[in-house]
Design goal:
The structure is a single chain. The chain is α/β, with parallel strands linked by helices. It contains six helices and twelve strands. A nine-stranded mixed sheet has the order 2-1-3-4-12-11-10-7-8, with helices on both faces. The protein has a three-stranded mixed sheet with strand order 5-6-9. The chain is globular and about 45 Å long.
């Protein structure tokens, strides 16, 4: 499907099941508005519930796609459809927390051929590429080391950052080894070496983080990766 812009403004699809009780959902509009102001762009965003996405046609006309936190999603196939559409069509993609987890599963299934790639939170069988973390990261802040000369490193302009999490699941250690020779590369990790950021090197902008960098906006601080996301959407 050819990707075409419907208006001169940037149109962003926020894929996820919106809830006013989720802090990341409160933060995302603020982060987008702040980034748009910095970049002097007009940005319009639509919240698309996972249940509303039944095919790639439901995503036509968007300049970028953000699969937001809030898993387990009501209709997980809607999230997978959005991720795959962005990945296969070169559309700027950002995934945070649940978006990170499901981007990993989508890649494992549709690129690596792991049809049974599964998520330990919701699946009882299959190969668990997303598994329970050894230590919960719910409402935790931690340091992340960034690989140089990557999208995320250029966005932040430094090699070590501090960001907030709200999750109990991450990449299973056994699957982490399988990514060592994949275009989906690890570009950020914590002090223990656990994966916290991935980027698809064959794609113009495909970035997923386990942490919720958008929550900086709740404290009046910039979210550099959101700025980079919008910049990519404007190209």
């Amino acid at each position: 499907m050819e990707h075409t812009r419907l208006t001169p403004d940037l149109r962003i699809a926020l894929v996820g099941d919106r809830s006013d009780t989720v802090l990341a959902h409160q933060a995302i509009p603020l982060a987008l508005d702040d980034a748009a102001a910095v970049l002097e762009k007009v940005v319009k965003y639509d919240w698309l519930s996972t249940a509303s996405i039944n095919s790639a046609d439901d995503l036509a006309g968007y300049d970028a796609i953000w699969v937001v936190p809030g898993s387990p999603y009501q209709h997980v196939d809607g999230a997978f459809t959005a991720i795959r559409f962005a990945r296969e069509n070169g559309i700027p993609f950002l995934g945070t927390c649940g978006g990170f987890q499901h981007a990993i599963i989508e890649y494992a299934r549709n690129v690596m051929g792991w049809a049974d790639a599964a998520h330990a939170e919701t699946d009882s069988s299959g190969r668990m590429v997303i598994d329970a973390l050894t230590c919960s990261l719910v409402e935790k802040t931690d340091a992340i080391e960034l690989r140089g000369n990557t999208i995320v490193h250029r966005a932040y302009g430094r090699g070590v950052i501090q960001e907030k999490y709200h999750c109990n699941y991450g990449i299973a250690p056994a699957f982490a080894l399988e990514l060592e020779h994949q275009p989906l590369q690890v570009t950020g990790w914590d002090e223990e070496g656990d994966i916290r950021v991935v980027e698809l090197t064959t794609h113009p902008f495909f970035v997923a983080t386990l942490f919720q960098h958008e929550r900086n906006a709740l404290e009046g601080r910039p979210a550099p990766l959101v700025q980079a996301f919008l910049r990519a959407a404007a190209l």
